[in-house]
Design a protein that fits this description.
Layout (H helix, E strand, L loop, with lengths): L2 E7 L5 E6 L2 H19 L15 H14 L13 H4 L2 H9 L5 H11 L3 E5 L2 E4 L17 H18 L3
Parallel strand pairs: 1-3
Antiparallel strand pairs: 1-2, 3-4
Length: about 170
């Protein structure tokens, strides 16, 4: 089903697009997260704190403090990826999913969520946006499954970072 686009204000004065799935899609997304979330949770790296069970930003800050005070680290990387959710390429993301999910129906359903059309409520009328045509990037902020997908794709970045000795 199409996602409903809602714009929420950001702290810098801009706006963030949320893609709100239908109730039915949210329920099914939650079911998928409950089943595959623990499988992928085992793959995520300890440096990944965002959108994870029993982990939060305070724990990340404590870990940085520990590295600086106990291991005399002098450099800390604090990165905020601009428009991260909207920039995740579908093909490598789906490849990451295919490594652990064998059920083609689940993979097809996830792909359909990623490419769902988007409608906006303009002057009381729902209008389909131009981006609905063959999307190849992004996972909608507002979808129940999106944080898991974002973490799964970000894992690739962290593995490459480690491979190059950072």
């Amino acid at each position: 089903m199409p996602l409903l686009r809602v714009w929420i204000p950001k702290s810098n004065g801009g706006q963030r697009p949320l893609g709100i799935p239908t109730i039915r899609d949210r329920v099914v997304q939650m079911a998928v997260v409950l089943v595959v979330g623990p499988i992928f949770e085992a793959d995520l790296l300890p440096q990944q704190y965002g959108f994870r069970p029993e982990l939060d930003a305070k724990m990340a800050v404590r870990r940085v403090f520990w590295h600086v005070t106990q291991h005399w680290r002098q450099e800390v990387v604090d990165a905020d990826l601009r428009d991260y959710f909207t920039s995740i390429p579908h093909t490598p993301l789906m490849r990451s999913l295919e490594r652990r999910i064998a059920d083609g129906r689940v993979l097809k359903t996830i792909k359909r969520w990623l490419t769902a059309p988007v409608v906006e409520n303009i002057s009381g009328r729902r209008i389909q946006t131009a981006e609905a045509r063959r999307k190849k990037r992004g996972t909608p902020q507002g979808g129940v499954i999106s944080p898991l997908l974002a973490n799964l794709y970000f894992r690739r970045f962290l593995l490459a970072w480690q491979l190059h000795g950072y």
